[in-house]
Amino acid sequence: MDAIRRAAGWSAALSLALVAVIVASAGIGPVPVPAETVVKAVLEAVAVPSLAGGDLGWHHPFSFSLRESHRAIVMAVRLPRILLGALVGFALAAAGTVMQGFFRNPMADPSIVGVSSGAAVGAVASIVAPALLPFGLGLETAAFVGALVTAFVVYAVATEGGRTPVATLLLAGVAIQTFLGAVTSFMLLHSGQSMREVVYWLMGHLDDAGWGDFVPVAGVPLLPLFVLVCFGVLLAYARDLNVLLLGEEEAAGLGIEVERTKRLLLAVSAVITGAAVAVSGVIGFVGLIVPHVLRLVVGPDHRVLLPTASVAGAAFLVAADTVARSGAQELPVGIVTAAVGAPFFLFLLRNRRVHEL
């Protein structure tokens, strides 16, 4: 119960910080928008069910006198990008937290089993040679499929006799990442006029975001629901992840189905990472740095660390993307996260704040 209370308290505080970051970000840009106007524009979009004449419908309880240009800037241009950034940051931080615990390695991140490299191959192939892809896969679908296929191949290579040693899995991931990096480089050399688009995707970006990324099917927004379901599964296994830190033999002695738990954690982490990378490109350091920082603050208990790191990852990526689009020339957000993350990680190393898990 103490862990639940701590998780709830920290998550609530970080969620308030995330809301503040979102409101501030929505007001920043070539046309500044006051925070009060941002809040009013969002409230105007809120719809609640109501009965009118005996028929169930939707009612907008809030109405304000706002400049139409401000309303359009917030709701049509900035907010979709901000919310997609929050979703991607949330997913990458969650996967990074689990991967660091899974491998008991502070250098682990969401791409450690080649998921990002596989997504890159799929995405670059869809840009450079779309005719070669089966079923006419689009960029995001090709990236997602590439990520999942790579994770499956790494797992299959590392598994022998029904067991998947963590060290073998790590080495297989490194080897396949290297090979897929070569494949991506080969396609880049033959990308011709598509090179700029390829390089931009590989740097990570959110500038193509729109409400289409949240298109609901049967009234359900699929991408947020997909990420939250994956997160729910990971959170349900947070206690088992704590036990795995003791070692596989000790975990088995305490009643954990080690191989089954490892397969599930690996699969769900790969899926949630693949979904994030498919819509944003390769964004580094979110899943590496954010879990470290939160581990220093809230401790190593994954029941507390996983939800808090995920919310912090959402806030971090929204803030980074705000910086990326606020200069004279917009930058891919992956450049900003790397520029911030790498020096900060070196600072942690210098101060001996990065430890073996």
Automatic annotation (TrEMBL):
Topology of this chain in the membrane: Multi-pass membrane protein
Subcellular locations according to the entry: Cell membrane
Family under the similarity heading: Belongs to the binding-protein-dependent transport system permease family. FecCD subfamily.
This protein's name: Cobalamin import system permease protein BtuC
SUPFAM superfamilies reported for this sequence: ABC transporter involved in vitamin B12 uptake, BtuC (SSF81345)
First-listed, main subcellular location of the protein, grouped into a coarse class: membrane
UniProt keyword list: Cell membrane, Membrane, Transmembrane, Transmembrane helix, Transport
Assigned GO CC terms: plasma membrane
Keyword Zinc-finger: no
